[in-house]
From TrEMBL:
Record-linked Pfam families: Alpha-L-AF_C, ASD1_dom
Assigned keywords, A-Z: Carbohydrate metabolism, Glycosidase, Hydrolase
Enzyme class (EC, first level): hydrolase
UniProt name for this protein: non-reducing end alpha-L-arabinofuranosidase
Organism, as annotated: Chelativorans salis
């Protein structure tokens, strides 16, 4: 099979916001406890943060981490996580039916972010609480001093404000499973008033309002219209979430799901434009895709805990999906979609970062290791920064459950003007044959292939483990070359590739 792609230097989508490659860390399962934080672990620092995990996170150059939830945030008292550790209460977490010791709170998370070289994206609780708790939390985090909450922060050991700019107004408030779930009008009004109060403190904050939890929600996309009609003038982003599943083991349908993702983005972008027009507004609102990943492998084993059958355990192994090679292809396609829609999607958070549906896993008292999906996320975060190109793709396709004519090659291209590099991320969705791809490079001066990484495997179900982290990993590719302004490469059946030209 053959595919032809045209990349033109002046035919661009958008400058990519670096925050497209963010991540999410929730007080859930072992994400925090025995994930990022495990005092006594051989690699732990003086704050109890695992050095092996920090090393893997730093390598990803994660721009922003959303915290503390997730469903967890909707019944969370942020004040439980401040002050002397021995005085912090143990609470029952209603979202995940576990016990929360509050050993890690905002101070510890801020210290961890600093050590990881990333920024905080904080969520306020608009489920069991509201405007008052949100404005106090904001003052605690961001006011320099001389007020009740900022002086308390100083007494708790942190004089300088953290100056967190990015705030989420609750989490998945359209979901009946959410503590304090509301209808679109109730939530829209609360989010608008909370946003106004937060902006009264600091006009320069970037605020994220809840959109739909996924595009199969019965309230989608009416939810977005109603919520935005209440909040349009005081928010900057609409939060969207999507998880990808393949319980039927239908690879063709699974790997076409990013087309459903693309429609979701397009529909919400259109709804944003509709409300903008209705409001006669000059303001632009974007999309924060702040939860996305494959999530289904662990569903069965989680049932007992989620049903409450295991009592209220401390940091149980929840949502510990073990990712396979097929998921590498899926994550590659998802990231390609975000790059192609970087005109409207400004923030993205892989959900999550450590142990819970995550690219990084840890063993209690043991090693930290890379799951299969670590790699496509790594390549996009490190080399997917710059300007997204609007590629013209000519390639045979197939019909899937949700979409017809899904091209066998899924591709995105990024021009990094500062480095003078062109990076292509390519997935071959076809399991039967290799595809010869030619990319015509228009308006770019020559160039040669400087990096070529390939991920293939004979078994779509192949996984990595703590004991074997080498089973699914990238290998240097060969055979990709540029001649007469054309990049030519062969994509093996079911493969992920990154090709960089300079
Ligand atoms: O990431 C796991 C959960 O998925 C989050 O807590 C929630 O927001 C979503 O439903």
């Amino acid at each position: 099979m053959k595919a032809h792609v045209t990349a033109h230097k002046d035919y661009t989508v958008s400058r990519i916001d670096d925050r497209l490659y963010g991540a999410f860390l929730e007080h859930l399962g072992r994400a925090v406890y025995t994930g990022i934080y495990e005092p006594g672990h051989p690699t732990a620092d003086e704050n109890g943060f695992r050095g092996d995990v920090l090393e893997l996170v730093r390598a990803l150059n994660v721009p922003v981490v959303r915290y503390p939830g997730g469903n967890f945030v909707s019944a969370y008292n942020w004040e439980d996580g401040i002050g002397p550790r021995e005085d912090r209460p143990v609470r029952l977490d209603l979202a995940w039916h576990t016990s929360e010791t509050n050993e890690v709170g905002i101070h510890e998370f801020a210290d961890w972010c600093r050590a990881a070289g990333t920024e905080m994206m904080l969520a306020v609780n608009l489920g069991s609480r509201g405007l008052d708790a949100a404005r106090n939390f904001l003052e605690y985090c961001n006011h320099p001093g001389g007020s009740y909450w900022s002086d308390l922060r100083a007494r708790n050991g942190r004089r300088e404000p953290w100056d967190v700019k990015l705030w989420c107004l609750g989490n998945e408030m359209d979901g009946p499973w959410q503590v304090g779930h509301k209808d679109a009008h109730e939530y829209g009004k609360l989010a608008a008033e909370t946003a106004k109060a937060m902006r009264a403190f600091d006009k320069s904050l970037e605020l994220v309002v809840c959109g739909s939890s996924h595009s199969d929600m019965p309230t989608y996309p009416e939810w977005e219209r109603v919520v935005l009609e209440h909040t349009y003038e005081v928010v900057d982003h609409v939060s969207l979430h999507m998880y990808f599943r393949n319980p039927e083991k239908n690879t063709a349908n699974f790997l076409a799901l990013n087309h459903k993702l693309d429609r979701y983005i397009e529909t919400v972008a259109s709804t944003i434009n509709f409300v903008k027009a209705k409001k006669r507004s000059k303001r632009n609102v974007y999309i924060s895709f702040d939860e996305w990943n494959v999530w289904y492998h662990s569903n069965k084993q989680d049932r007992a805990i989620l049903d409450g059958g295991n009592g209220w355990p401390l940091a149980p192994g929840l949502l510990e999906d073990i990712y396979n090679f097929e998921d590498v292809l899926q994550v590659g396609c998802i990231l390609n979609t975000f790059i192609r829609r970087s005109d409207v999607v400004k923030i993205g958070c892989i959900a999550q970062l450590v142990n819970v549906i995550a690219p990084i896993m840890t063993e209690r008292s043991g090693p930290a290791w890379r799951q299969t999906i670590y790699y496509p996320y790594y390549f996009a975060s490190i080399h997917g920064r710059g300007t997204a190109l609007n590629l013209l793709v000519d390639c045979p396709g197939y019909d899937s459950e949700h979409d017809d004519n899904v091209p066998y090659v899924d591709v995105s291209g990024v021009h990094n003007e500062e480095e003078g590099t062109l990076t292509f991320f390519l997935v071959n969705r076809c399991g039967l044959e290799a595809i010869d791809v030619e990319v015509s490079l228009k308006g770019f001066a020559g160039g040669t292939v400087i990096d070529h990484q390939v991920m293939t495997h004979t078994d779509l179900e192949a996984v990595n483990t703590a004991a074997d982290q080498q089973n699914v990993r990238p290998r240097s590719g060969s055979g990709a070359r540029v001649a007469d302004g054309v990049l030519a490469a062969s994509l093996p059946a079911y493969s992920y590739q990154m090709i960089r030209v300079k």
